[in-house]
Write a structure and sequence with these properties.
about 210 residues; alpha+beta; three-stranded antiparallel β-sheet; 5 helices
């Protein structure tokens, strides 16, 4: 469907909630189809018509403003999440492993926290769960929620090197599964090097 966001979804709703619906209160949960990591579902992205991304800015752990446009020339996996979101917590380790595996000059996972507590909520969570390769990016005012018309968390948007949306998925995914990694490699042209931060500096983690 030209110009529309694409969704990876299984044929039937899961037994347990997989997406935390946005709105008041934060804990409002609705069961929706969980995103599939199957290669057949990922095929939907092939040949999709990219659509423009809205201007999007957020901050890093030091409070510096960052525009998504700064990541131009990389494929970006933009993951919107929060520490109070169960499915988000479930998929975070796989996002960290994906960044370790593919992160570099051609690809980056941008995990954008919508936690109101900002850095004070995210850094302890990263330490507790052993996240080492993801940079802390924060949107405590949840401006991205409106800009991207989010329906729930987690939501992940695939952005091409020209800053255009290729598609999006609701719900937790095993991001470092062989099917997903093989799919993402198709957009990279060739393998990327060790994980780097947004400025291109080698990232050691921790």
């Amino acid at each position: 469907m030209a110009g529309a966001g694409l969704w990876w979804s299984a044929g039937a709703a899961p037994a347990a909630p997989e997406v935390v619906r946005l709105g008041a209160p934060d804990a409002a949960v609705s069961a929706t189809p969980v995103a599939s990591t199957g290669a057949d579902k990922l095929e939907k992205f092939k040949g999709a018509e990219p659509k423009p991304m809205p201007p999007l800015s957020f901050v890093d752990a030091e409070g510096r403003r960052i525009d998504l446009a700064e990541f131009k020339d990389r494929v970006i996996l933009l993951n919107l999440w929060a520490t109070w979101c169960g499915p988000c917590v479930k998929e975070m380790p796989s996002l960290d492993r994906l960044q370790a595996q593919l992160g570099g000059d051609a690809f980056q996972v941008v995990a954008l926290s919508l936690d109101r507590g900002g850095r004070a909520a995210v850094e302890p969570f990263y330490k507790k769960t052993g996240v080492e390769h993801l940079t802390v990016f924060l949107d405590p005012g949840s401006e991205s929620m409106k800009a991207l018309s989010l329906r729930g968390l987690p939501t992940t948007v695939l952005v091409d090197p020209d800053g255009r949306e290729l598609g999006r998925v609701e719900g937790a995914v095993e991001w470092d599964s062989p099917e997903v990694v093989a799919f993402l490699r198709q957009f990279l042209g060739r393998g990327s090097g060790p994980a780097r931060d947004r400025g291109g500096v080698m990232k050691t983690g921790g």
